[in-house]
Amino acid sequence: MIKSPPQKYNPKQVEEKILKFWAGNEIFKKSIDQRKGCTPYVFLEGPPTANGLPHPGHILTRVMKDLVLRYQTMNGYYILRKAGWDTHGLPVEIEVEKKLGLEDKQAVENFGIKKFNEECKKCVFQYENAWVEMTKRIAFWIDMDNPYITLTNDYIESVWWSLKQAWDKKLLYKGHKVVPYCPRCGTALSAHEISQGYKNVEEPSIFIKFKLKKEDAYFLAWTTTPWTLISNVALAVHPDETYVKIRYNNQILIFAEQRTATILKGQEYELLDGFSGKELEGIEYEPLFDYAKPDKKAWYVVLADFITMDDGTGIVHIAPAFGEDDYNVGKKYDLPVVQLVNPDGTFPDEVKEWKGKFVKDADPSIIEHLQKRGLVEGVHEYKHDYPFCWRCDSPLLYYAMESWFIAMKQVQESLVKNNNQINWYPEHLQQGRFGDFIREVKDWALSRKRYWGTPLPIWTCTDNKCKYEICIGSIKELRELSEKLPEDFELHKPFVDELKIKCPKCKSPMKREEEVIDCWYDSGSAFFAQWHYPFDNKEKFKENFPVDFITEALDQTRGWFYSLLAISTFLFDKYPYKNVLTLGLILDKDGQKMSKSKRNYVDPDIILNKEGADALRWYLVSASAPWMSKRFYEQAVKETLGKFILTFWNSYNFFTTYASLDKFDPKKDIVPYEKRNSLDKWVLSRFNKTIFEVNSFFKKFEIHKAAREIEDFIIEDFSNWYLRRSRKRLWIEEKTSDKLAGYSTMYDVFLGLSKLLAPFIPFITEDIYLNLRTNEMPESVHLCNYIQADDKKINHHLEEGMEKIRALVEAGRALRSKIGIKVRYPLGNAIIVCDKKIEDSIKDLLDLLNEEINVKEITFERDTSKFITKSIKPNYSTLGKRLKEKSKAVVGKIEQMDMKKVYEELIKNKKIVVNIDSEKINLTKVDFEIIETEKEHIARTETEHAILLIDTTITSELKTEGFAREIVRRIQSMRKELDLDVEDRIATQIKVDVDKRAALQDWNDYIKTETRSKDISFTEKPLGKLVKKWKIDELEAEIGISK
RNA sequence: GGGCCAGUAGCUUAGCUUGGUUGGAGCACCCGGCUGAUAACCGGGAGGUCGAGAGUUCGAAUCUCUCCUGGCCCA
Fold first, then answer.
1. Which candidate, A31, A323, A514, A602, has a CA 20 to 30 Å from the CA of A143?
2. Are residues A392 and A275 both part of a single domain?
3. Do residues A302 and A335 touch, judged by C-beta distance below 8 A?
4. Could you give the count of Cα atoms lying within 13 Å of A259 in the half-sphere of its Cβ?
């Protein structure tokens, strides 16, 4: 039996009740199990990085994942929903360092790597709990009991296997490369890591002079990083640019001709000579410092193409250890790599002047030193973007480091080919941002000189003659090569470093490369490593590769989306996912990025407790296209709750209140579709159209459009029109078949909506479904099949008719408002003037118009002639223009004529002939203005398809009926004031003027029914629980009611 | 510095693919009405240089270019 729920909707209460219901009945598990054997739809969970508490952005991703998966599950797909946790990496280490107060790598090592990694592991699981709670609360159904976790031996073993594949394909190599390096964290950063930390900073830049060896002249160079001057080994010029030698301020300087204007800013100088960059090649100069003792020839001019004339002097100082371009030039000229900086970013002992000082901090002092020696030509503050460590905020240094790489450039063509097989949403990312990235792909700097991560499984023989290198791809191999592998072990530092491995070639001990790997590689391996492939689950992997669907936020484009494709490409030469939905970022109320430092961060828990998960979910999916950024603030969710969720709930509440009162039984009382009225059929047509639209929008991931389609249907069509117009049907006390038809329709729509909306707002839909379901139906809405549109119920003719009726209602109400007769007072007749086609499309729906504009009768006419007088008057301005001085006479003639006859003649003959002094003048339509006048008591308005006329005559009967409605309205508001239940009956006493009393007698029954009064008595002194005096226009009334 | 995405009423947004009546809603605001109809509903009003400028066209929110602002990505 349908029950009437509480009047007021309490999101938290309902949602917690539903959470219990799901848990108690294992609904999530059943939703998967019942699809066993069905076509799989493979989803891969992008593992959250467990480096902090979840924020609104994470909620969006999880809501969107859940929405799509619920939708597909209901559509009959079998979806495994394995959760995953990304557990390694620098973020975790930073968190632990903070907690333990460890300031740098040395402190970590003093603390002990074993203990440190244990702390990291604990830290990860501490955050996991917060994530699990949030995930459950927003109803993201994912199997968190059997997640893949990147720190497990199984997972690491799979990752090792994949690295061995790369090794065997000669894609894994050790290189020297200039990489952005964080001196504090003591590690190189990957491209996607640096990108997160660019800041616009102002730094000193200096013009610095290098004295030529064989001449009393100087090369003028420019740099923003004075500390690299210590390691300078060359100067570079562009081979094709022109350089000049000038005398300025009693010294001779050499630099690019193009830069003279900027550098000298109009000051006087003498041009001595000019040459191309090529001619300068090989010229030697004196080093600025003597700290470096290079083993190769250094300090001369080299040529390089990368030099621009945009800033500086056209002469660039080269320190191969500290710049990618510098390094490449250095390789070409076989320059020495002078690296006078310690790994922690301080100067070594050789640099006596600044030893132990952090290089960036030494800049001012270096400048001062050079100034004293007269080698600085100018110092300027220079604004530019400089990379900072995304975690610890230290300025990064470019640093030539030994590092392991995956040679992605070698598989670049495959990357492009595989990317072209993927469906990107939105599409522009495929060839745009992502396409650009892989077309210019760089080798993947894989290794990290850190502690908490997947160890790089490469061992090198310690014998200097042998130096054999191996890559271990499984635990089995490890066991075979190591002296003694205990039963219980963890594939982490420091355990793997302490293993005694013997060189397969010379039997000398081997030593592991100390690094761990980039944690992006961990998560990018998820598509096979989650199955412990290839050691286990070979079949399962096959079934689940490539995956059908992944979705993450935009910032993952070059993160996880890339690492998956990269690894899948070199392992299997195949795309790892078929569809990728990229989500927009979550911004604050003012469109700013959410960040902890700005404190513009919204705590999702507050919203979950106040507005609830459904309102939150609905806001996130309906606000804008999935890939557009969204502003997130409580007020927005609050409005969603009020506008949508509560409208939905209150309509439902309205239906159940009456349905339970009448004991409506969906098993027995359902009226067949054919026997329902036009309004019922109309709303079912609209509903099925909505279902159709939702499904087609879903296919394109235009989820916001699907959501808005439903919202429009519920608010406009269903609540504001269908239910409003159905109210009267339910108010009748007998169980009429029309009333049952109404209940049946509402039942169909609510049951249908609970399914249609289940993937979007899983709580409220479940609550509604559980109340409406019969025993034969599945025990949860989430175990139902998704609702499909019934084409047979879509009736375009009816929908068009309703549109016209609603337009007439709108116009009619505006008209009544204009003529100032309250809608409460009925009027006699309304006339619709339209053609036969329009009449046919609306005649079945006329009752709705009758009630809405409150008229007794509506009739159709083909033209307005009965109600409107058409007449004409001369158009003085056109006549005057055309006839000049004759016009006066013509006008005089016309004014004597009967205008009605003139009009008729004009319509008939299209012209009128006027005789002026024997001259015949032809007058046509343009010479007249047509005037339309409504006849007395007729008000007129029009819509696109029809003209609506209302007879405004108020007879005394009509006046009395209006008065009766006034009385009813007063009694109803008194009932409300007494907080009576809908079914409560009352006794009513009324005092009105004697003559009104007589007239009202005729409306006795009407008032009784409308107000559920047992009886009505007219007295001089009304009594009751509530007695009120009313002034109705000019009349006074006193009413008393009691239960 | 380069690339991509976006900019429409105080706020949230539709329309842009494929140029064509007067740029459509919702929230908030003002006036009126209606109500056993809800955090309502109905009618009316006010509120828009469609980010700016130029171009193409008979006609531009829509197409093209330049610029500005914001976001993201890259350097």
1. A602
2. yes
3. yes
4. 26
Beta carbons within 8 Å of A272's beta carbon, 6+ residues apart:
A244, A245, A246, A247, A252
Half-sphere exposure of A858 (CA within 13 A, CB side): 25
Lowest average pLDDT, out of A31-45, A54-68, A71-85, A95-109, goes to: A95-109
Number of domain units in chain A: 7
* Marked catalytic residue, from A141, A354, A404, A560: A560
Q: Where are the strands (E) in A506-643, listed by range?
A: 509-512, 516-517, 547-553, 577-583, 586-587, 630-631
Strand duo A586-587 + A251-256: pairing: unpaired
Judge whether A638 lies within some domain. Answer: no
> Is A666 in the same domain as A679?
yes
Query: Which residues make Cβ contacts (< 8 Å) with residue A916, sequence separation at least 6?
Result: A886, A889, A890, A893
Alpha helices in A301-342 (DSSP H): 324-333
Integer-rounded Cα radius of gyration of chain A: 42
The model's pLDDT over A236-273, given as tens digits with 9 standing for 90+, comes to 988 888 899 999 888 999 998 878 877 777 788 888 98
Spell out which residues of A between 645 and 704 contact strand B, using CB within 7 Å.
646-647, 650-651, 654, 704
Please name the residue that has the structure tokens 């009437």: A4
Measure CA A119 to chain center.
35
A97 shares a domain with A217: no
Q: Which nucleotide is nearest to A1012 (CA to C1')?
A: B36
- CB atoms under 10 Å from CB of A26, counted, come to 11
Rounded to the nearest 10 degrees, the angle between the axes of helix A887-896 and helix A876-883 is 140
3-class state of residue A529 by DSSP: helix
Contact assessment for residue A780 and residue A22, using Cβ atoms and an 8 Å cutoff: yes
Structure tokens at A635: 């007020």
Which bases of strand B sit closer than 7 A to a protein CB?
1, 3-6, 12-14, 26-27, 32-44, 70-75
Please determine, for residue A391, whether its predicted confidence score (pLDDT) is greater than 70. no
**A115: CB within 7 A of chain B nucleic strand:** no
- Report yes or no: A328 and A236 within 8 Å, Cβ to Cβ: no
Largest Cα span, chain A: 134
A36 and A151 together in one domain = yes
Q: In chain A, which residues from 222 to 251 place their CB closer than 7 Å to nucleic acid strand B?
A: none
* DSSP collapsed to 3 states, A731-751: HCCCCCHHHHHHHHHHHHHHH
Predicted local confidence at residue A57, as pLDDT: 85
- A789 and A813 share one domain: no
Catalytic residue list contains A1015: no
Our measurement of CA A970 to C1' B40, in angstroms, reads 19
**Cβ(A152)–Cβ(A491) below 8 Å:** no
Look at residue A35 and tell me if it is in a domain: yes
User: Do A102 and A232 fall into the same domain?
Assistant: no
- Per-residue confidence at A730, pLDDT binned at 50, 70, 90? confident
Integer Cα distance of A250 and A377 in angstroms: 13
Question: Is residue A5 domain-resident?
Answer: no
Residue type, A617: R
Annotated catalytic residue within A141, A161, A520, A649: A520
Of residues A119, A186, A193, the one with CA closest to residue A450: A186
Average pLDDT over residues A730-741: 83
- Please choose, from the candidates A592, A520, A587, the residue with its C-alpha nearest in 3D space to the C-alpha of residue A560: A520
Residues of the domain holding A491: 457-514
Report if residue A296 sits inside a domain.
yes
Please give the distance of CA A797 from its chain centroid, rounded to a whole number.
37
Give yes or no: residues A215 and A361 share one domain: yes
